[in-house]
Amino acid sequence: MWKGRFAKETAELVQQIGESVSYDWRLYQHDIAGSIAHARAQYKAGLLTEEEFSQIESGLREIEADINAGNFEFRTSLEDIHMNIEAELTRRIGPAGAKLHTARSRNDQVATDTRLYCRAEMEVLAAGIRDLQRALLDRAEKYAATVVPAYTHLQRGQPVTVGHHFLAYVEMLERDLGRLTDARTRVNVSPLGSGALAGSTINLDRHGIAKELGFDRVSTNSMDAVADRDYIAELIFVIGLCGVHLSRLSEDLILWTSAEFGFAALSDAHTTGSSLMPQKKNPDVCELTRGKTGRLLGNLVAILTAIKGLPLTYNRDLQEDKEPLFDSIDTLKLTLAVNAEMIAAMEIREERCRAAASDPMLLATDLADWLVRQGVPFRHAHELVGKAVAASVATGTPLDQLDLATIDPAFTSDATSVFSLETALAARTNPGAPSIENVRSEIARWNTGLSSN
């Protein structure tokens, strides 16, 4: 493609380090779509005859069909997907194929291809997030009233329900989906027509090309258009943060399925055994999800590091954007799918949850609130309950069986009325609080919202 300027063939090692077709081949559908739109603009501008445009479009469709069927040979000597397709097109249809690159550079071509690719994959990721939300919502609905301890510092804190717990992850995933949707507005911008960095003296209809390819608008600065990889970094960030949320869910389930907690049981189909210890049932999906999150965050660091020191405009360093992008998308798609399947098959061991939630210490804050309602300032109430807890621990007497009046006269005989999980949960009616009524209302709201998506 640059033989006019160079007298020697590119060295074999340079070809090895410079080729990208071994992984950017997956852009082929988007490259072909962009090329057809570009050729159509050339035809409308009088640069191609109707016959030449027809040859180009038919030739590109045939190449696409061959790639789909696995009958296309990619050549690393041609570096990338763009030149592989263009060279094969010219071989098949002759001189018309050599006209395709008029008023276009690989710089704006690859930017167009990756934007189209990101846009398409974002739709798949969004669907995967919705599927996982539905699986979590199904479990939340089944166990809406199952009381379980909630934790801070991995110490028992206050009672909630399993439904409330799972709805927390539905909320996290909704934010991920919102970020994905928002990022799409910055992805869906057409750089085609920006050329290598300064456009072209042959002016094609950029708006027409953008419309054909489904872009919302065209880029407004040719230098930024070919140098910009913010949209890739942003997408990888959104993917990474979604991975962090999945990792937190995984950690909860790893704890919940342990013998020490025993709150949940995963299906045999989503766990593995041990090659040595026959009793083991390991939550490998959760552990792999947790582990792959590090990979997603590494990809984010990789892309940010690749672009942080680049002068305008295009630099070959930008070739390093694709492998982190492809890997992050592939990893999250698989992780979302397997987690949705695993959650849908998971069962909660309600008796273990009830046993853990029966710990009266979970209602220590409710006891302090009871004192407040009797007119005791909260800080003093907190101190008095703290003394009661200390006495409970020291004597081995459950908090709800302690003679609280010996701690302070503020504890009247009806103070122990707070030691009821049903009463405690029913009192938590503020928006966002875990009363069973609130939880069921939220489940109904989410069911309505997700059924329309």
Describe this structure in words.
- The protein has 453 residues and is mostly helical.
- The chain folds into three domains: 12-102, Fumarase C, Chain B, domain 1 (Orthogonal Bundle), CATH 1.10.275.10; 107-203 and 214-355, Fumarase/aspartase (Central domain) (Fumarase C, Chain A, domain 2); 359-419, Fumarase/aspartase (C-terminal domain) (Ribonucleotide Reductase Protein R1, domain 1, Orthogonal Bundle).
- The chain is 60% helix and 5% strand.
- The protein is built from 18 helices and six strands.
- It has helices at 12-18, 21-24, 28-44, 50-69, 81-93, 95-98, 106-142, 162-187, 206-212, 222-227, 230-256, 284-307, 322-345, 350-357, 364-373, 378-395, 421-426, 436-451; strands at residues 147-152, 155-161, 189-190, 217-218, 264-265, 347-348.
- Helix 3 (28-44) crosses helix 9 (206-212) and helix 8 (162-187) packs antiparallel against helix 11 (230-256).
- The chain is elongated.
